[in-house]
Known about the structure:
The protein has a three-stranded antiparallel beta sheet with strand order 1-2-3. It has helices at about 5-15, 15-25, 25-35, and strands spanning about 5, 40-45, 50-55. Helices cover about 35% and strands about 20% of the residues. Strand 2 and strand 3 (about 50-55) form a beta hairpin. About 10% of the residues are buried. Helix 2 packs across helix 3 (about 25-35). The mean pLDDT is about 90. By secondary structure, it is an alpha+beta fold.
Amino acid sequence: MASDMTLKEFVEQHSQERVAHMMGMTQGAVSQMLRSKRALFVAVDADQPCGYRFYEIKSLGRNRAA
Length: 66
């Protein structure tokens, strides 16, 4: 995880359109993800067709505000 970066940092280096293509979704979906408060990250992964792995870190259980 040390070399992983946030989705926002990754989009700053590339573009929303290019990242959307890598993820197999629309630019609008990437824009919504960037505006959300979700913990979204990107890691280099040679096993993936685009060379990157996109993932989210989420809490389990009832760890959300009531």
